[in-house]
Structures are given as structure tokens and as C-alpha cells.
Amino acid sequence: MPHPDERPPAAATAWPRFRLGGPLTLWLPVVVSFVVQVPAALLRWHARALVSSFDDDPVRFTARLVLAVAGPVALVFARRFPGPVVAVVVAAASGYVLVTSGDAAPPYVALPFAVIGAVVRGARIWAWISLGVGWVVTLAAGIALRVPWQPALVVAVSLALVLFVAIGESIRTRRRRWDEARRFAEEQRRSEVQAERMRIARELHDVLAHSLSQISVQAGVGLHLLESRPEEAAKALTDIKATSRSALEEVRSVLGVLRDGGEMTGVRTDSPAPLVPTPDLRRLDELLDSVRSQGLRVEASVDPAAHAAPAAVQLAMYRIVQESLTNVVRHSAGDRAEVAIVVTDEGYRVTVDDPGPARGGTTVGGPGRGGPREPGGPASGGPAFIGSGRGVLGMRERTELLGGRFSAGPVADGRGFRVIADLPELSGSS
After folding, report:
1. Cβ atoms of residues 209 and 391 within 8 Å
2. Could you count the other beta carbons within 10 Å of the beta carbon of residue 118?
3. Which of 37, 214, 231, 249 has the fewest beta carbons closer than 10 A?
4. What domains does the chain contain, in order, with CATH numbers?
């Protein structure tokens, strides 16, 4: 398996791989070995019959012809049974050499096809054992039958057998690397798809959690004042309409930015301008005012130098403040929150403090705070499907994607809850 930091070869995805399972690789060795071996055996018998009676023996001729045909026929089954096939072909080749009495016989073409195919298809042990046993038996039987072995021919054939195995090993190694590269590319593609899903879920959660929580509060106010103060109830309904329209426009913009791959920079290149600007610190006052309209007193302190941060960092700051204040509105029994954005030596720090206890009488840091801070039930005061702790997880992921550090939990004295995100200083093109 390639190292995670390595990229697969470009050819792994650009060029089609030569498949050993295709019909060409099955029938080409069969046809070639049959066309070479069988006519060669017949021609050799005919040529020798013209000058001597050496091949006049019909038994010898029949054996040579059967052995010449056996190799190509065995190759038909090489795909399903590469090990047994290489053993059969080696045995047939050994018999063919002995029947020809060791003289310059036509090459047994089926042998290299069988050996290389067996090694490539994983039957390496079959190939090595078959060649070793076949070679020893052939030499021993030839000596016993007084076959006039030619030393140069013996050495040449030995080297050829080693070469066949080496070719098979080379193809097998290359094939394995191709498969690993393809698997790596597929895993990388799946990882990118999963990351894209997480990006969309994180962005939509940040937009919808805040807007729907605000709508929920405004709807509660409207229902409460519907009979006693209908004019204020009407104002609450107007606010709901404005909030829902703004949320819809922002959702459309988020989907457009994500579709164009501009989530990290907030810049769209090939599509029309977003319906609303990508959130940054310039829209922070608007966010704070919307939270204050729900009855939460928010004290904010923003270092002016933070406005010079890159777009990706400003987007992260905005979303972290948005999600943290949404959690305060939905889950805290307090009526106050503190927001601070400062410039540090390493970059930027975003701090959101909720000094109040959790709603429903739970202890600070228990259900309703931190990871369990978002129970997502109706009692929490917000829509049930927004909870489940994904907000804090999304803030952590957003911070870590930029190379920063994130923490969320109860404060030291046990009263209140604090979110801290340390974001690095990125270059303007990051």
C-alpha cells in the first residue's frame, strides 16, 4: 500500500490496464503454441523421414504429436487452474524433449506461457516446484536413456527457464503496484467524497442551527403575545419571515460556494455572485444584533487587526461565534454572553463565554453542555433535528482544518461554559 502522502501514478487512472482476464490473453497463448508446435512436429518428422528411418516408428511419432498438442490444450484451463496447468505443461515439455532424443527439437512454446501465467496469477510455488522437478527428472531420464545432451543447449535452456520466471515475477510486481495505485486512488476518492459531505453538513448546520433557533424563539414570543399584544406578535411574525428569507438565501449561497469548491476561501470563480456575501467579521455586528433581539445580552470585543485575517480564517471566526451564541440561546439559563476576538503571536483567538448555568437545572458541563450540550430534544428550546452535538464537533473540525486548536467545556470555577478557538495566521492565498 502506498504511503498516505504519496499520490498514485498518473497512469494508474489515465491508462487502461492490460487485463489478464480478457479473452485475448486466454486464447493467444493457445493459438500461438498450437500453430508453432504441431506443424513443427509434423515437419520435423517428415524431414527426418526423408533421410533416415529414425522417425518411422509410429509410436514415437504419435507420442511426439500428442505431447505437442497437450501443451496448448492445457493452456485453455490456465486461467482457472494456473498451478496444475503449469505442472502438466512442464511434464509434457519434458516428455517432448525426451522423445526427440535431446537433439535440436522445435521449442515447446506452451512452456513460457504456462510458467509466466502461473507466476502472474499467484501460483508461484507450482511454477518453481514444477520447473525444478521437471528439470531434474528430464536430465536424469536423459542420462539413463543415453540421450546425447549438448552442454551449451542445457545451459541455454536453464537460463531460459529462469528468464521465464523472472518475466512472470516482473509482471506480477507491476500488476500488484497497479492494483495498489488503483485502490489508493479509489480510497482517496471516497475520502474526498466523505470530506465534501462533512463540509456541506458543517456549513448547513451552522446556517440552519442559528436561523431555526432564532425562528423558534420568535415563534414562541409571537404565540405568547398573540392575544394580549397582537402588534408585537405581528412584529415577531415579520421577524420570522425576514429570518427565514435570510436563512434561505444563505443556504443557497453556501451550496453555491461548496459546489464551486470555494468553501475554504469564500471565493466563487465561475458562478454568479452569491445572494449574500460570504460571512466574515464585517457581518459580525449583524449576527450579534440578531442574537440580542432574542433577549440575550452580548458583550463583544473584536481586535481591529483581526479584520485583516484571510477569508478562510474570518469565515471560521464568524461560524464559531455564530454556533457558540446559538448554543447559549438554546441551552443556557443565563441571559448574557461574552465574545472576544484577539490577535495573538500565533494568529487569532476566538473566545465565547457563557456565565450562566445550563437550562433545565442540569449541572454545568453535564447534559446540555459541550458535547452533550445539544440534546436536540424539544425541551432544549430548539428544533430536535439540530442538536446531537454536531455543532461543537463542527467548530472543532473547522478549527483543525485550518491547523488550529479548539476546546469547549465548563470554566474552572464550575459556573458557565467557554469555547476557545486558536486559529493560525494564514497567507492571503491560503
Report:
1. yes
2. 30
3. 231
4. 11-149 (no CATH), 189-424 (3.30.565.10)
Identify which of 246, 236, 251 has the alpha carbon closest to the alpha carbon of residue 286. Answer: 246
The helix (run of H) or strand (run of E) holding residue 180 is helix 151-225
pLDDT in tens, the chain (430 residues): 444 444 444 444 444 444 555 677 778 888 887 887 777 666 665 555 545 544 456 777 778 788 888 888 888 898 889 999 999 999 998 888 888 765 556 678 888 999 998 999 888 899 999 999 988 898 888 888 887 778 887 888 889 889 999 999 999 999 899 989 999 988 888 887 777 777 777 777 766 766 776 677 777 777 777 778 887 778 778 777 777 777 777 677 666 655 655 444 444 444 444 445 577 898 899 889 888 887 889 999 999 999 989 888 998 899 899 889 988 888 888 889 999 999 998 899 999 999 887 765 444 333 333 333 343 333 334 433 344 466 788 888 888 888 899 999 888 776 789 999 999 987 544 4
Q: 5: which residues sit within 8 A by CB, 6+ positions away? A: none
Distance separating the N- and C-terminal Cα atoms of the chain: 30
Closest CA to 419 of 408, 430, 429, 428: 408
* Cα torsion through 124, 125, 131, 133, rounded to 10: 180
Pairing of strands 347-354, 417-424: antiparallel
- Count of H-run helices and E-run strands, the chain: 11, 5
Count Cβ neighbours within 10 Å for each residue of 142-175 and write b for 16 or more, e otherwise: beeeebebeeeeeeebeeebeebbeebeebbeeb
Q: Tell me, what amino acid is at 318?
A: Y
All three cell numbers of 26, joined, read 486466454
